[in-house]
Automatic annotation (TrEMBL):
GO terms for biological process: thiamine biosynthetic process; thiamine diphosphate biosynthetic process. GO terms for cellular component: cytosol. The keyword Kinase applies. It comes from the Bacteria. The lineage of its organism: Bacteria, Pseudomonadati, Thermodesulfobacteriota, Syntrophobacteria, Syntrophobacterales. Pathway: Cofactor biosynthesis; thiamine diphosphate biosynthesis. Keywords: ATP-binding, Kinase, Nucleotide-binding, Transferase. This is hydroxymethylpyrimidine kinase. Residues 14-257 form the Pyridoxamine kinase/Phosphomethylpyrimidine kinase domain.
């Protein structure tokens, strides 16, 4: 049997299909990786916002992770919405016990609609328990500000935030600067060198799921054997294409199109 890379997402669900584990699994599949999931929370969610959240018990989150790893195996892991400090601590213990080295942490705190997805008392657990185990951490500007206490307005602010977050222990920090003016700029910091990843700004508000998709694309690259800069470059290109072909679904922020390149190869068109 041919080998297929395997990636696990530990995150919350999005009933609207644009973010969360739904976005993660679509991204894994689009990039040639077999995807698995451990649910941390269920959300009643659409393009307009999050209407309800049901948190999964930490011990059941752990049971899902261990079930997958013990049988199928995992080449890379991505975490997203973890919701509570108890779940974060349990996931961190599993990562340590199971030797899961290629860990991408997307520190999901707030949905694009503004709805909170991480309890306020869980931020400390995130930085103390999970960040030191991470190969890559991918905060956006808001998350970087919460994690560091800095007000970030430009590249110098992004660099300062990356340095502070690196002190929590991850091997690489990627501060996403998509909310700044000009073309989107993401900065990758390895403790010594900053690498800039730029792309075109696509004029659209159909960007639901970009953060989940970007982190999952990095995890997919790592699962396929790419190093971190290579995985980030691939993820940046993939997400830019998915935003460019974003879907006008629902009455709010529509989702990015995870299978945009496959649709074009197949000659499919949509309105």
């Amino acid at each position: 049997m041919p080998f297929i890379p395997r990636a696990l997402t530990v995150a919350g669900s999005d009933s609207g299909g644009g973010a969360g584990i739904q976005a993660d699994l679509k991204t894994f599949s689009a990039l040639g990786v077999y995807g698995m999931s451990a649910l941390t929370a269920l959300t009643a969610q659409n393009t307009l916002g999050v209407q309800a959240v049901f948190e999964v018990a930490p011990e059941f989150v752990s049971a899902q992770i261990r079930s997958v790893v013990s049988d199928i195996g995992v080449d890379a892991v991505k975490t997203g919405m973890l919701a509570t400090a108890e779940t974060i601590r349990r996931v961190a213990a599993d990562v340590r016990d199971l030797g899961l080295e290629k860990l991408v942490v997307d520190p999901v705190m707030v949905a694009k609609s503004g709805d909170r997805l991480l309890r306020r008392d869980a931020v400390d657990a995130l930085t103390r328990e999970l960040f030191p185990l991470a190969m890559v951490v991918t905060p956006n500007l808001h998350e970087a500000s919460v994690l560091t206490g800095l007000h970030i307005e430009d590249r110098l602010g992004m660099e300062a935030a990356a340095r502070r977050i690196k002190a929590f222990g991850p091997r690489f920090v990627i501060v996403k600067g998509g909310h700044l003016e000009g073309d989107p700029l993401d900065l990758c910091f390895d403790g010594e060198t900053f690498t800039a990843f730029r792309s075109e700004r696509v004029p659209t508000h159909h960007t639901h799921g970009t953060g989940c998709t970007f982190a999952s694309a990095i995890a997919a690259g790592l699962a396929r054997g790419l190093n971190v800069p290579e995985a980030v470059a691939q993820a940046k290109d993939y997400v830019t294409g998915a935003i460019r072909e974003g879907l006008a679904i629902g009455g709010g922020h529509g989702p990015v199109h995870h299978f945009h390149h496959l649709y074009r190869l197949a000659g499919w068109r949509w309105a």
